[in-house]
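User: Hi! I have a protein structure encoded as tokens and I'd like to know what sequence might fold into it. I'm fairly new to this, so please keep things simple.
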């Protein structure tokens, strides 16, 4: 996807990019350069001196053509060099961006019939969908929309993180300008809100009240009844999975957990995850994601799929070595896969790390599991 504040790169033909395109890219990157006027075929446009005769001597015409061809080659090399420099300076993402108007792919199912997992709730009202489990995206009526400049996007992200709750103008200004707002901050914020309203409700009649991004006192609110957020759908899938486990239905739990995890495309609120007003929600979602990964692995063990659970838990415990439940699940999966020595090795390595790094003993659950493995308790073979 196209990242805020970055210039999209395109594939150019033999004529390379135009001067106008280069000048636009340079303005966006805050660089300074002298624009070059490029003609339709890539050559410099030369003005005909007043009074010049259309017909010239063949020698003079051939010489001029040779000069123009040489200039074309030089301009091509200069344009290519400038393109490469701008791309390197801006660290451009050269993957094809999602463009406004592109269709949104369906993510309701994930390797299983949709009926097997919790149903996907369709957005009501204007059909606006926000995706925050990765780079922030928005779709209206099933098509991607352009969220505008970086500060405009940041304002929307803050509102999305507080869906259904009003966010005051003061909080928005503080967040957008890091506590140092210019005199034009309020005017700029009003412009951002007006642009976002046009993007989110493109068919709203003039002078009619907004139903998606609404005014509430001295602030703004995203109407929770008119929008859908993938983070909310993830929570619904996670809850459905845990409830299915409590009912003794591991297959349905597995479908629900996998449907929820399939919604993730990267770090939550990727562009602004560290922003003070968004960071708490990003941290909450990441913690929930880790718990769902553990729940999915526990479900794989419960249905007897130890071979699939082991490599996923190995990667998980290496990335999160202090999460004791992950260590417990890995040891149990190894034991049920017939790898008793490896199961004990995992427990003892974790115990050593806890003592050396934190000065504490493992949890009673891990200590009990070690004893059960040593005596090969029959209970370990059952879910």
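Assistant: Happy to help. Inverse folding works backwards from shape to sequence: for each of the 383 positions I chose a residue that suits the local structure. Here it is:
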């Amino acid at each position: 996807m196209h990242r805020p504040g970055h210039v999209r790169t395109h594939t150019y033909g033999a004529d390379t990019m135009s001067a106008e395109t280069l000048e636009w890219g340079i303005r966006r990157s805050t660089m300074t350069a002298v624009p070059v006027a490029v003609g339709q075929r890539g050559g410099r446009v030369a003005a005909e001196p007043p009074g010049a005769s259309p017909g010239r001597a063949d020698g003079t015409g051939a010489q001029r053509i040779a000069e123009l061809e040489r200039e074309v080659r030089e301009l091509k090399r200069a344009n290519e060099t400038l393109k490469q420099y701008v791309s390197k300076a801006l660290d451009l993402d050269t993957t094809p961006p999602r463009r406004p108007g592109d269709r949104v792919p369906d993510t309701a199912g994930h390797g299983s019939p949709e009926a097997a997992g919790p149903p996907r709730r369709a957005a009501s009202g204007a059909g606006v969908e926000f995706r925050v489990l990765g780079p922030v995206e928005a779709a209206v009526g099933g098509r991607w929309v352009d969220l505008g400049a970086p500060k405009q996007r940041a304002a929307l992200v803050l509102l999305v993180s507080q869906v259904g709750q009003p966010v005051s103008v003061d909080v928005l200004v503080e967040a957008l300008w890091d506590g140092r707002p210019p005199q034009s901050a309020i005017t700029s914020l009003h412009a951002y809100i007006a642009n976002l309203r046009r993007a989110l409700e493109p068919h709203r009649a003039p002078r009619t009240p907004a139903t998606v991004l609404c005014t509430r006192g001295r602030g703004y609110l995203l109407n929770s009844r008119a929008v859908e957020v993938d983070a909310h759908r993830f929570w619904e899938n996670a809850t459905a999975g845990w409830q299915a486990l409590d009912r003794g239905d591991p297959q349905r739990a597995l479908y629900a957990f996998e449907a929820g995890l399939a919604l993730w495309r990267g770090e939550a609120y990727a562009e602004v995850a560290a922003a003070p007003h968004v960071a708490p929600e990003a941290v909450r979602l990441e913690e929930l994601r880790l718990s769902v990964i553990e729940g999915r692995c526990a479900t794989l063990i419960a249905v007897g799929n130890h071979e699939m659970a082991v490599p996923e838990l190995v990667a998980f415990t290496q990335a999160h070595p202090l999460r004791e439940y992950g260590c417990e699940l890995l040891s149990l999966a190894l034991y049920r896969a017939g790898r008793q020595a490896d199961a004990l090795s995992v427990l003892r390595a974790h115990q050593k790390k806890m003592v050396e790094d934190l000065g504490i003993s493992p949890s009673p659950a891990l200590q009990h599991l070690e004893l059960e493995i040593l005596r090969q308790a029959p209970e370990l073979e059952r879910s």
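A useful reference point when you look it over: Confidence is low (pLDDT under 50) at residues 1-57, 85-97, 106-126. Feel free to ask if any position seems puzzling.
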